[in-house]
Design a protein that fits this description.
It is built from seven helices and five strands. The protein has 247 residues and is of the alpha/beta class.
């Protein structure tokens, strides 16, 4: 797809007539001692562009600026974390779709680079049911890499800023990764964060897993898998949307 961004003018976007808009959702939240608050936002900015570029479809897409704050309630308790409530996130997605659809955009892809935005998926369903057609598409990029893509990591897909996220940042933004990497072998499932904060579950360290085992090579391999899997998923959904006019 051809890609326009907010560095284009309104008249250039109008001329390009994008059929699809892509909204990446990042976060401003603690990432332990070794990764910056903007980790999810930085990953979203780089990888969203790669995914759109890999989508094999004619037409134009508008890549929106990555939303730098979202729902990070599980990471409150650390200085620097800023969190919107789930209801605020619901309003943001609905308002973004309202603005874009009024200008002729046919689809909005809402892309969750931060995993705590659980409200986004039901909002997408809600909007599509209201419209009685597929207009908003939910994309969790981490779900579309094959399970084998996580085999080389210390603990598979870790909950927060362990081997996986640290490897991704070493591949994309190595200058932001601090030397103070400490393994924290506590093990818990993401669902536990519905009842307890990351600060409590991690013993105050803010992460789980083994960031000392992270490498840029592992990060680059995972990036390829995430981009490829996400692009193929979007192609399938858009093809289905072309075929099915009704919700």
């Amino acid at each position: 797809m051809d890609i326009l961004t907010d560095l284009n003018t309104a008249f250039e976007v109008q001329e390009g007539q994008p059929e699809l808009a892509f909204l990446p959702i990042g976060a401003t939240e603690q990432h332990s001692r070794h990764l910056p608050l903007a980790t999810d936002t930085l990953l979203g900015e780089r990888l969203s562009a790669h995914i759109l570029a890999a989508v094999d479809r004619t037409g134009t897409a508008l890549l929106l600026r990555t939303l730098p704050i979202s729902s990070s309630e599980e990471n409150t308790g650390f200085v620097g974390t800023v969190s919107f409530t789930p209801l605020t996130m619901r309003g943001i997605v609905r308002d973004a779709w309202d603005s874009l659809s009024r200008s002729g955009v046919r689809w909005l892809v809402v892309t969750a680079w931060h995993g705590g935005n659980f409200i986004v998926k039901p909002v997408v369903r809600e909007l599509n049911q209201e419209m009685e057609r597929c207009g908003v598409i939910y994309l969790n990029p981490w779900e579309h890499a094959p399970e084998a893509a996580y085999d080389g990591f210390a603990s598979g897909f870790e909950v927060h800023c362990g081997d996986v996220e640290t490897s991704l940042m070493l591949a994309l933004h190595p200058e932001t990764v601090r030397d103070d990497r400490r393994d924290n072998p506590v093990a818990f499932e993401a669902i536990y964060q519905d009842m307890f904060s990351m600060k409590t579950l991690s013993g105050g360290e803010g992460h789980a897993g083994h960031p000392t085992q992270a490498t840029a090579e592992k990060g680059r391999a995972l990036i390829r898998a995430v981009v490829e899997g996400s692009a193929r998923y979007l192609e399938r959904i858009l093809c289905m949307a072309d075929q099915h006019e009704q919700y």
